[in-house]
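Thread: quick sanity check before group meeting

JM: Hey all, I'm pulling together slides for Thursday and realized we never actually wrote out the predicted structure for the chain we discussed last week. Dropping the sequence here so it's in one place. If anyone has concerns about the input, flag it before I start.
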Amino acid sequence: MSRPQWHEDNLGQHYAKRSDVNRDCWLVQSSCSHNPFTRDEYRARSEKVLDTAFLIYKAEQYDGKRQSYREICIYHYDDQLVLTICDIMGRRIITCYHHHRVARFCHDILAMPVGERRMHFIDWLYNSEDGKIIRNLEIIKGEKVIRKYQKKTRKS
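JM (edit): ok, ran it. Output follows.
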């Protein structure tokens, strides 16, 4: 299977959003030392997630604006909780951003040790499934991390 690629117009739209509205968050999580970060740096960071993801899953996610579920996609998360979303065929990158729903601010999530960050995220994932924010969840990579989380939650 070939590596997912950005369509140039889609890359431009998502880069514009991350370099404007989400600029500070993106700079913190990417350890970028200059502002503004470039379109090529955004592309490289989003592709790096594909190689370093600790968790990959397929699911449909609820879109509150449209009041319906989005088509099923493949979600790749790395240890900094940078998310690259690809189409179900794994041919194109749809978007990439820093997911920090498990903490209020970007720096809060990055201040957590990696293991704790992973556990908070997996907790969010299962709560999202229970709350119908995501459905048809299928784990592709990360079963070991999830088993570790399950052992930890049983002890609590």
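AS: nice. The chain has six helices and six strands. The radius of gyration is 16 Å.
JM: adding both to the slides.
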